[in-house]
Amino acid sequence: MRRLFSILVVALSLNAGATTFSTDFSDLWWNASESGWGVNVIQQNGILFATLFVYGPTGQPTWYVGSDVAYVGNSNGALQFSGALYQTNGPYFAGPFDPSAVSNRQVGQISFAFSSTASGTLTYSVDGTGVSKSIVRQTWADNDISGTYVGATLGTY
After folding, report:
1. Which of 48, 98, 109, 116 has the most C-beta neighbours closer than 10 Å?
2. pLDDT tens across 49-68, in order?
3. Sign of the C-alpha dihedral, residues 120, 115, 72, 143?
4. Contacts from 70-78 at CB under 8 Å and sequence distance 24+?
5. Tens-place pLDDT, residues 132-143
6. Buried b (16+ CB within 10 A) or exposed e, 75-108
7. How far is it between the farthest Cα atoms of the chain?
8. Measured between alpha carbons, how far is residue 29 from residues 20, 40, 50, 145 in Å?
């Protein structure tokens, strides 16, 4: 019975997924000395989806999206991600949704250089205007990770 259990554990562990990243940068990021803007980052393996909420040239709130910001390597200990940046527009949220009213145009590039799990540099351009900012995770409360965990390892020695 014990041998059968061991074989079952090994067989189930072979299907376990793994990621190439030990750090997940999914979070809300900002510069604490520049309250009022920020960037949301959602990570899936080596791809970031970033939404910037900033103010445009007229002072109006503006959103930009980097939907495929890919891992491009490690430089001087910083994990680097880069991709295209878009401005999107769509129908008014309280009216009926009209997919033909959705539009986007590429306005520039966006890149991240994460020097640690909690800080990095955001660089982006919009219609030829470049911006570079130091960013940190914006945290309201720490996650409670106390509890009981079960795991297994498999290896050849």
Report:
1. 48
2. 999 999 988 999 999 999 99
3. negative
4. 70/46, 71/21, 71/46, 71/47, 75/113, 77/115, 78/113, 78/114, 78/115, 78/120, 78/121
5. 999 999 988 888
6. eeeebbbbbebbbeeeeeeeeeeeeeeeeeeebb
7. 72
8. 22, 6, 10, 21
